[in-house]
Amino acid sequence: MRRTPLLPLALLALPLALTSPSAHAEDGFLSRLRHQDLLISTVPENGDQNPYAIVIAPVSAGKVQKNDVLVDDFNDKANLQGRGSTILGYRPGQSEPYVFTSLPKDLAGCPGGVGLTTAMTMLSTGYVIVGSLPSKDGTTATKGQGCLIVLDAEGKVAAIWQDPKINGPWGNMALREDGDHALLFVSNTGFDVGAPSDNAPVVPKATVLRLTLRLHHGAPPVIENETVIADGFGEKADKDVFIIGPTGLALDADGTLYVADALGNRITAIEEATTRATSAGTGREITRDGFLKRPLALAFSPEHHLITTNALDGEAVEIDPQSGRQLGTLWLDKDPAQNPPGSGDLFGLAVREDGKGLYYVEDDKNTLMLAH
Fold this sequence. Notes:
Blueprint: E1 36-41, E2 49-56, E3 69-75, E4 86-90, E5 98-102, E6 116-122, E7 128-132, E8 147-151, E9 157-161, E10 174-178, E11 181-188, E12 203-216, E13 219-238, E14 242-244, E15 249-251, E16 257-261, E17 266-270, E18 284-288, E19 295-300, E20 306-310, E21 315-319, E22 326-331, E23 349-351, E24 358-362, E25 367-371
Antiparallel strand pairs: 1-25, 2-3, 3-4, 4-5, 6-7, 7-8, 8-9, 10-11, 11-12, 12-13, 13-14, 15-16, 16-17, 17-18, 19-20, 20-21, 21-22, 23-24, 24-25
C-alpha cells in the first residue's frame, strides 16, 4: 500500500504505549497480549518501505541465526508498490537490523523484475524462498508475471523459479518438510489482472499452488512436482493496495490448508492439501464476516487457533478452525490517520517461537512490532 511519511529513527527510542485486548476477546491467545514493543525500523539504507512478509528462522545458517526474524519490503524509496527489493533481519535483543539481501530490481530470469511480497519462507537447509510480484510504475498497469526467488543463507540468488502456474506469488507461504522433501504452498494473484480503476473487476482466477521440493544440503532445492490444489478465488487490481487476493495460508497437521480469502471476507479450508491431485476449488468455508475485515495473513496460535490480521482496520482476529467461531479481536494498530483506525497498516504476522508473543508489521510507520 502507498504509505505515509517514514518513521524517524529517533522515535525508536521513545517509550512504547501499552495496548489492551478488545472488549470482544475471550480467553485465548490474543487476550493474553497486553503490550506492544517497537523492535526496529524496516527501512534500509536504500529507502525501501512497506514491510510485508515475516518469517522466523528455523535454523542458523550464513547471515542468519535461529529465531532471527526476516522481513521484506514491497515498496521502493519513492513509495512505488511492486518495487521493493530488500529483506532485513532482526535478531532478538538487538536494536538495529541487518540486510539479508538487496536484490537488483531488474533481476534477470524473473519476468518483470523484483517486487517482494508476503510469500516468503526459510528451509531447514538454510535457503530462503521469496515471491516477486513486480511493477514498473507502482501499479498493476505495468505488472510483471513475477517469480519465486531462492536465496542462499548469505542472501545471494541461488535459483529463480518461473512457470505459467507461478503468476504473481502473493500470500504468506505454508511449508512442511519431511527428510529430503518439502511441500511448499503459495497463492498466486496475477492471472488476467489489468490496470487499477474505480470499477476494476473481481477476477475469479487466483490459485493456491503446491510445490513438491527435493532438498539438498549445500545446494538449492529443486521443484519435482507442482499441483494447483485450489482455484477460483477472487483477485482484483486496486489503486491503493496494488492487488487484493487470497493472502494467508496455514497448514494443519492433518493436511488441511486454511486460506484467508480477502475478497470473500472469509477463511476457507482445503482438505487433503498435502496429497490431493486435483483442485478443491475455493474449499470449505470455515467462517466469514463478523470481526473479519478483509483478512490477510494467517498463523496458528499455541492453542491451535487461527490468527489473522485485518486489512480494513488495525485488528487481529482469533478463530477456532474446528467450530469456525470467531473468538475475539485485538487492536494492534489504532493509528487515527487511517479510517477506520489502522486500516491498511497490517500485513504479515508470525507467532513467536516460544508461543508468548506475536510479531507483526505496521506499514504506516515501517516498523516490526512485537505484541506480548
